[in-house]
Amino acid sequence: MISDLASNRIHFVGIATVCLVLAVLAGLLLAFGDPLSISLTGSSLKFAIATVACTLPPAIVTALLLFRTNILGSGILQTCLVVWLFIPIYVHIAGWRNLFGPQGWLEIANPLEPSANLVDGWTGVIWLHSLAAFPWAVLLTGIAFGRGPASLEEDARLEASPLAVLLRVTLWRSWDAILVAAAWIVIAVFGEMSVASVCNVRTYAEVVFTGIPLGQSTSETGLTIAPGAIVIIGLVLLAAWLAESMRPREPETETRRPAPLPLGNQRWLWSLLVWLLFLAALGPPIVGLVYKVGITIDQVDGNFVRGWSLVKAIDLTLSSVVVYRPELTWTLAIGATVSLVTTIIALLLSDWATRGRVGAWLVTLFCALLFALPGPIVGLAIAWGTNRPWLAGLAPLVDRSIFAPVLAILTITLPIVTFYYWHAFASQRQLHEMAAIDGSSWWRTWTRIVLPGNLSTIAAGALMAFVLACNDVAASVLVLPAGIDTISRRIFGLLHFGGEDNVAGILLMNLLAVAVLATLLRVLAGRARRSDFSDSLP
Asked: What parts of the sequence cross the membrane (predicted)?
């Protein structure tokens, strides 16, 4: 009990310190920032807070039920959750807009703004960001909910119902994980520009993205360096606290993992609610894409009649692979390269992080820095850095190869995969110590014992990097050389023009590929249940 109080006190001090520094940075931004930077930062923060408010409550309830109770079909739901994790953001955008957006099947006007559509403007930004953030919030909180000591819950069950135990014990002991999920959502919303761009909403990342392709500098877009630096510092600080909270730590005492709590007569009700939530979130975009890809328009008696053809839907979906073959080829090349580089670097970083406090701190800060940088800022920085006169000899590498997009996407894949490996290998520290006592060198232990014994974990991390790389738009869109185009960038460009039936076809193929790869990822992660983190991953 004393250790719990001390731990809570440390958490409160850390959170208070972060909040204080963020408040100071906000004051500096208001004092020295230009009006446009202040407005765009405030807009991004508003959307981030609204996304947190819309996402966290249902995510917490879902995580409690999915990870801590015996709801029906939990295995299928967990597989769907992993698939949902890796669905590209543009699939959500296209699916919902094809169904409810402009010229959609069931076009609905925004009741708060009659001139706009329901999935356009600020309502579309909040809704689409919430859909993308929901599975990550469920996973981050669910991992924490599954780590509580079993003894506390067993004692509480003697005096309270399972639902009361979830709220008073499980949820209360994991309050810091909820803040971690909130910080994750805030950083993700700040760095994502594709939703804001399609929904015609101005945010900081969106202005950087739209200005640079037009040949504008930061000064020409109205943005200045100092306010941007303050925003980046604030994001890095928040990401540093996030990474520090997520990095693995050795438990003070051995704790037995809690068993799922039985819901009794309410099991069917809660199971139905979770299933309906998944269907309500994933069903409409799929229906929207299927409707769009099979739509037909025939002229009957001088009138145009809209219909739907299953034959056309199947034919257009399958033929989309041929139509977009060049983009798919470049996407696979970039994804495979990113996966290979990410796996090698992440393995080395995670091993270094498990060896001592200095390595752990440096790896934490490095991952926080990469994760905090908004995608357009990453692309802008790479474009600026590779165009220096003293790097003229590297021009062919930058302008005629996939070097720049690979480098940009690494800022997304490296933090996530590094932390996955770090958690997976953290429990094997004693293995290194025992091997060292027997006279085995670090390299021999790593190559003969650690790597061969964790092939499923390594493969899962590599597959994770591959899917994330193939889905990227924000980081790589500004640095793709002429003649090199990815399927993500092509779809993102076409979505601005309404997303026709051929786009819906390739999106359905994309969704099918993501479902297969995400299911394979869950199988690999299931085989790698040798650590707390991998055991908590669905």
From this structure: 12-33, 45-67, 74-93, 126-146, 181-201, 222-243, 268-291, 330-349, 361-382, 402-422, 504-525
